[in-house]
Amino acid sequence: MKVIIPGGSGQIGMILSRSFAAEGHEVVILSRGMKALPFRVVQWDAESLGPWADEIDGADVVINLAGRSVNCRYNAANRREIIESRVKSTIVVGQAIANAARPPRVWLQSSTATIYAHRYDAPNDEATGIIGGAEPGVPDTWRFSIEVAKAWEQAANDATVPCTRKVLLRSAMIMSPDRGGVFDVLLRLTRWGLGGSSGDGRQYVSWIHDVDFVRAVRWLIDHDLDGAVNLSSPNPLPNREFMRALRRAWGARFGLPATRWMLELGAVFLRTETELILKSRRVFPGRLLDSGFTFQFPDWAVAAADLCRRWRDATGRVANKIAEPGAAADGGGM
Q1: CA nearest 189: which of 262, 261, 114?
Q2: Measured distance CA(37)–CA(40) in Å, rounded
Q3: Alpha carbons 245 and 212: distance in angstroms, whole number
Q4: Phi, psi for residue 137 in degrees, rounded to 5
Q5: Beta bridge pairs of residue 169
Q6: The pTM is what?
Q7: CA atoms within 13 A on the CB side of 70
Q8: Please, what are the domains in the chain?
Q9: Residue 63 belongs to what H/E stretch?
Q10: Residue 195 half-sphere exposure, CB side, CA atoms within 13 Å?
């Protein structure tokens, strides 16, 4: 199988590329820069058709991950680059597929679970979930993220590719032990004694273990689903419980909580936004489960223990003593 991954030089692209290559599939990454990667890299500008489009002709699968990182402050210039990088790259991928003499049978288009509303009352599945943007009292930056997600999906939906099945990957936070990823950041805070609850700790955290993310992608390639699909564990949980389980998995004795104003101040210094931490994302993978997919890591406590073990194996860190239930590891994050 030949797999084309536009924007595949980042962490998620590497997770997928390693898995496909390990199974003997051909992986081609489309990248703006010619990075030294253990996979074949073809240069593109993510805006216009070029020789790179020949790779799509005859390929089996396209997984488009292209788009500027959202780990930045949402000023006017960054907002423009975030939305344009996603929309333009999606449009041109659609054009390349439409022009192909032998188009791929499936196009998996990256999207985000951030498209759903900030809410606590009920989970968002694909059928009944509430698309965000109209919630009262949420920051303007959160509304911007909804606009980006909707424009991203619309660009894919507008593409006319009758011979190619399209799937929109509404992914939750993908947890892997790779350096620089969201789990690595959360674990760093936990190791430094800062792994307590964020804000009031009520906001739901939706997540998916990297093993299940790869398995879900393979499932979507092999099964006849199209349209929006939530890629998330079936068990999101409040931030307070999420961080408590991570502390226990690491063996941390305490975790200092962070108030909202502390997080906002820290985000300014780190030149990022607090949405990733403070928005309540309560996402449920209804279509995956209905299609027969089963999760290897449906529960965060087990997933966190596996991720901590793999992180230690990769870094050579010695395991901490895991706290017993009711011990001090439950203390500082409340």
Answers
A1: 262
A2: 7
A3: 19
A4: 80, 5
A5: 110, 229
A6: 0.91
A7: 20
A8: 2-330 (3.40.50.720)
A9: strand 61-64
A10: 27
pLDDT digits (tens, 9 = 90+) for 239-276: 999 999 999 999 998 898 877 757 666 555 555 566 77
The mean pLDDT value for 87-92 works out to 97
Q: Report, as an integer, the average pLDDT of 75-97.
A: 94
In the sheet that holds 26-31, the strands lie side by side as 40-43, 26-31, 2-6, 61-64, 106-110, 165-171, 227-231
pLDDT at 327: 33
Q: How far apart are CA 59 and CA 62, in angstroms?
A: 7
Contacts 24+ apart (CB under 8 A), 325-330: 327/253, 328/253, 328/254, 329/244, 329/247, 329/248, 329/251, 329/252, 329/253, 329/254, 330/244, 330/247, 330/248
**Inter-axis angle of helices 182-191 and 300-315, to 10 degrees?**
80
Joined tokens for residue 143 = 């509304």
Please, which residues have CB within 8 angstroms of residue 134's CB and are 6 or more apart in sequence? 117
Q: What one-character-per-residue DSSP string does 222-247 give?
A: HS---EEEEES-S--EEHHHHHHHHH
* DSSP of 18-49: HHHHHTT-EEEEEESS----SSEEEE--SSS-
Residue 176: CB atoms within 10 A of its CB come to: 22
pLDDT band at 170 (very low <50, low <70, confident <90, very high): very high
DSSP readout, 104-118?
-SEEEEE--GGGB--
